[in-house]
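note to self: the first set is below, dont mix up w the second
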Amino acid sequence: MTKGLKICGISDLKTLKYILSHQYPPKFVGFISNYKKSRRFVEYEKLKVLTNVEKKNTYFVSVLVNPNDEMLDLMKNLNFDYYQLYDVNPKRTKVIKEKYKVKIITALTIKNQKDVNEYKNYLKIADIILFDGKGYEKSIGFNHNLLNPVPISINKMIAGNIKIEDIPSFKNKDYFIDLSGCLEDEDGKKDFKKINKLLNFDIKNEN
């Protein structure tokens, strides 16, 4: 079993309610909050509706790419547990965490070992370090062996073109697993059958 699952890129109420009411709901659900290049981007007014549901034991994550103060002031009014920050340096990350009293997932995009080693600059700030591919909205993978030197004690999440069938390979890695694209149909919409397969697959592979 993984440390926990994150389903990212949720943009409609029907899908969100399906996920939250599932017998084995994920640990996190992510919403693309300010990155308009992504087809999964959600406008603020819609975010208000989505984050107003009963989330039970699932954490809501606002995915933000280099957010400005205006965007952050909007997000503070919504029911988010974590901000997942891309392209935000350690100093500003600390300011955001302290000002908005929110937990932080620092997202690092990985191509080489130097990119991985950036996690050391966020150890006293981020609650979770997310190692992602370089593709942003294109979901590009990377060599996961680059993470082998990262201590087990670090609270880690991994993303980047991960498929449901890849999950057993992370069984002993103590990672949170972040999936999005592999749960979509040909039109880019979340597929309930694939989501159900994922959530049941993780439980079945816990031993």
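second set (the one i keep forgetting abt)
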Amino acid sequence: MIVKQRDKLHEIMKLEALDKRLIHQHPEKEKVRSEWKIKQTELSGEKEVDYPLGFLDDKKYFILHNVRLADSNGYFQIDTFVLSDRFLLIIDAKNWRGRVSFGQNGQVTRYSPDGKVEGFKNPVSQVKTQAFRLQRWLLSKNIPEVPIAYLVDFSFPKTIIEPASPDIKIPAEVIHNSDLLFRIQELEKKYTKRVMTMSQLHKVGELLKSAHVLPRDILSNYHYSSSDIIKGVYCPECGLVPMEKGKRKWFCSKCRCYSEMAFISALNDYMLLFGDRITNKQAREFLKLPSRHVVNRLMHKGGYLQIGRNKGSVYQIILK
């Protein structure tokens, strides 16, 4: 049973909106685009574990994604967390492509398909540290000690995992995603003693979910103001901005596209960049509209809730 879904998609949507709306000459434009691509790759890798985990019995296993917990050393995050009544399993997903070489002293080298060579700390040591911190965190919540296993899951099937030399062994915790289900079956055979009832297990899952700490808003990493943001409604066909507002529809002067609801996407961007409250004046500025009455009609047409009255009123934006 899925106890907690992934929340990384919202970060990606925010970065996508900022990439689309940030003026081209902004000094952090490339940084935003790079981070957006990195987050997309991370999410893609993490989603690959869904297929093998889909074979697990919903009544025996609870699954949480992207759990971020606070402890005395700060915060630690677990990509995917599998709970059973016999053991807990941490899965650290890696969407690395090319070749991954394990060397001495915990050194890991990635040889990307584009020829780039990068050195990394051993991911097994990192996930082992997560297991240590998790065990300590659970004990602090009066949860009895429970076996915690951990795996580093390489999600891309063509990734070559190799030792740097013949005398070095690849850690047993390193697997390809295709082996994940079978490794969990091995853990079932290894840990035969029940350490929790299903009721207790459910409480632990809910405790972890409620203790999840949202990360700092990803857009706070970038320095931009309203003047750095491209205003207007984008054409859904050719991407021209701004579209022109006619009596009933929005019109694109480039591809001659007409759209009745193109403003919805623009308000989605506003919410992702600035929050879920917008005044009539802010909406006029962002949508490039001259009349407050036109804004009122559009907001009601879009089904947005108006909070308050007269000049103090705001509209609540929800993603659509």
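remember for set 2: The first helix runs from residue 8 to 21.
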